[in-house]
Amino acid sequence: MDDFDAQLRELIARGFSFAHPRDATGEVAAVVGVRVHHGVVDVVQIYGEHDADATRIPGDEMDIFFPYKVFWRASGSSAEVVKELLALPDPEPGDVPKVNGCWVPARPGRSKWLSASA
Fold it and tell me: Is this model's pTM higher than 0.90 or not?
């Protein structure tokens, strides 16, 4: 198992849920991992080995892919972005609003509800 495989397993162990949004032709556009926790939403979008983006946003943001407020963001190679995301500490209680989950697009016209973890 390589380092990136271990990183992906760590995302799963931390409670990330994954969706595979598809384009209009049905092709997978990205692998998207989302974790709603401690009043924030962590999002990682993996487009390929050398192309990923991750953000930490407030849990009350209406659109997790185009948020108005961002606490943290990283872009670059998938392994480096996931490494930085895994290194983020959890927010302190009271720093951010309580949130129960968020909607994530799954394919054109469809979304999936992801519940918050503790």
Answer: no
